[in-house]
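Example 226, ligand zinc ion.
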Amino acid sequence: MKTCKKCNKEFDENLTFCPFCGAENADRKLTYIERKKAREEDTEFMLSKASIQQRDIDSAKQANLDDIKAQKIGDLKAEQKKSFARIFAGATLMLCSLLPAWLLLHEDINPNLKWIVIVVAFLVVATGASVLISDIYITRALKEMEKQDFTVKKVQFNKGPMFVYNGALYELVAKNTCPCCGTEMHIEDLDNDIYIVCSTNRNHIYKVDKEAFIESFKDKIEQKWE
Ligand SMILES: [Zn+2]
Ligand SMILES: [Zn+2]
């Protein structure tokens, strides 16, 4: 750990620039080239830290089960239907806008208008394709999770890892702040294992005892029915 000369916050010693305020924290004045290289190395380091690595797992402490909860998203079948519907709508929209464009290009029209048609058609395809790709991924992930209860997977970019139990889809969320530094935490998954990770310092990583988590989760669900 090193302390920023400008904002006094602590950050990883592998970094040259403070991740909080952006101040340069080198031992001496850097040249333009050195500074450029340091920035690239910082980015590379941050990216390598953005997913769980073997060394993180080795240093992971045991998580407290009170720090994690499973939040019900909805019925798995309903979520699958929604995803299918989006794929269908996206594909239909693309076809409906491309067909007229294609016909228009075969007409004898103003060349400027032709370019506009090409650009619009290209934009429609690009947006449509990105929606399709993400929904195709979601559909496949849900299919995989459906096979066995408690298969943990990251399904959506902006949501925590999810799992299926009794035909319902659940999202894993961190309940408390980091016991080490007090900032927010989030859930990550690797090889079907669950980790609670501090959002500012990846060295603060806690492994969830999955068996114990499943036990307590089932207990809570049954309590609700009684
Ligand atoms: Zn700083
Ligand atoms: Zn922390």
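Summary: The first helix runs from residue 32 to 49.
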